[in-house]
Amino acid sequence: MSEETETLEVRGEKINVGAKLLAVNSEGKYFLLRRNPEKYPETANQWDIPGGRWIKHLEVIPQTLVRELGRETGLTIVPDNNPKFVAKQKFPHSRIQDLSIVRHTYRARVTGSIELSDEHSEYLWATAEEMKRMENLDPMVKDLLDQGLIK
């Protein structure tokens, strides 16, 4: 998937739309992934939540969550547990000048056996309090914590 094919122009501004999931287990802990430093040297070893780019004309954002969660982790959203919208965040793309990312974050309970993709090197389950004390937490996840949107 190329950056160009997934870029939208809104009021003269170029954006990519992403979807992220605060995946919660039965104990109320959040699933975090450590980015693979070989694949993502600019954010090496950063902890993030599952998600990825929305594919325009092919899916709605909740479908992006299901696709990316399964592809990156092997987990699935618990049946009859529709993802709940948490926040929308906007920030500049890390590698492409004049491109912004609009990231939609949802929360849902998840289940299944974990099988990480090559995008990530490890995972952990953490409470919001544990996340607040973590180093190398993705800045957008930290922002959600600071706003009190992750409890």
Give a description of the structure.
The protein is an alpha+beta fold and 151 residues long. The protein has a single domain (8-146), classed as Alpha-Beta Complex (Nucleoside Triphosphate Pyrophosphohydrolase), CATH 3.90.79.10. It is built from 3 helices and 9 strands. The chain has helices at residues 61-73, 128-132, 139-146, and strands at residues 8-10, 13-24, 30-35, 47-48, 51-53, 76-77, 84-92, 100-111, 120-126. The strands form 2 sheets. Strands 1, 2, 5, 6, 7 and 8 form a 6-stranded mixed sheet that branches. Strands 4-3-9 form a 3-stranded antiparallel sheet. It is globular and about 45 Å long.
Q: How confident overall, as mean pLDDT?
A: 90
- Count up the domains: 1
What fraction strand? 35-45%
Amino-to-carboxy terminus distance: 34 Å
State the CATH superfamily name.
Answer: Nucleoside Triphosphate Pyrophosphohydrolase
Uncertain runs: none
Which structural class do you get from the secondary structure elements? alpha+beta
What does the radius of gyration come to?
15 Å
Taking the sheet with the most strands, its summary is: 6 strands, mixed
